[in-house]
Amino acid sequence: MANLNHGLKEADLLKLQDALIISRIRYALPHCTLTNQHHERINTLIRKTTKFALGVPICTANTHLENTGLYVTCKEIIAAHRHNQLYGFGTPNQAGNY
Predict the structure, then answer these.
(1) Given this model, what pLDDT does residue 37 score?
(2) Can you tell me the distance from the alpha carbon of 22 to that of 66, in angstroms, rounded to the nearest whole number?
(3) CA distances (Å), 92 to each of 48, 85, 89, in order?
């Protein structure tokens, strides 16, 4: 899907991954009861799509992927969403808007 001269660029593929995969995880899964096996399957999906978006082989070591800073786990996504739900995204300004 991405190569040097044709197709989507790496940044566009990462945006697509965020829009299609991560957003679904971010908004649907915090309200589900998940087992450790479910978390591992979701993390595998995130890793595979991130590797694909970066253009690296699927067999690349996961430690290399984690060192890029582009990979977040399912639990981190859910925790961030729950934190934002509880505490909001910021403080209101003088007009009372966030």
Answers:
(1) 96
(2) 16
(3) 39, 15, 9
